[in-house]
Amino acid sequence: MNKLLIGILLCSIGGAASATPWTVDSKNSNVNFISTKKINVAEVHHFNSFSGQLDDSGKFSLTIDLASVWTNIEIRDTRMKELLFEVGVYPRLVLSSNIDLPKLADIAVGGTSVMELSAELSMHGKKQTLSIRVTIAKLSENRLLVVSTQPIIVNAANFALTPGIDKLTAIAGLTSISQAVPVSFVLNLTR
């Protein structure tokens, strides 16, 4: 009888552990984007503050603090926060998607799987549905690596960012800043 109770207890603990949400380890993850100015001058930038979670229903959400933009030039960071992102009004970018949990569970430790995801990107008061291809590696039973298999092209016009880009172009005295911005990410998730 005691063995049966111990078995039931262990099974319930195991079930609770698998229901534990996955959390993005932001210290070991990154979200990058590339800006292109003067037609062919490209620079890689990133965000320093973001968080994310995958819950037990398969809902994934990544929230980026737009005020954490880092371009390696302080005045450009300030201008992007104020003129482009308008962080006083629109402080965050949110990417939401649903993950196929049975497919995720089928990945063996050390294995990978490529998934096509439909994701909603919410930024600057606008929303858009995007198709995102990710590669998921199961590093252990409690650790995943999720990588954008190809860059996600975010068009500034779809998020009412064109006026901000125009302001940045004028204030920096540039001939152009591209409105098509490639974004990529490497996310470590733990539970």
UniProtKB/TrEMBL annotation:
Does the keyword Signal feature in the UniProt annotation? Answer: yes
User: Secretion signal: which residues?
Assistant: 1-19
Keyword check for RNA-binding: no
Which InterPro entries does UniProt cross-reference here? Lipid/polyisoprenoid-bd_YceI, TTHA0802/YceI-like_sf, UCP029811
Please state every residue range assigned to the domain named Lipid/polyisoprenoid-binding YceI-like: 21-190
Which keywords accompany this UniProt record? Signal
* Pfam families associated with the record: YceI
Q: What is the name of the protein in this document?
A: Lipid/polyisoprenoid-binding YceI-like domain-containing protein
Q: Which organism is it from?
A: Shewanella benthica
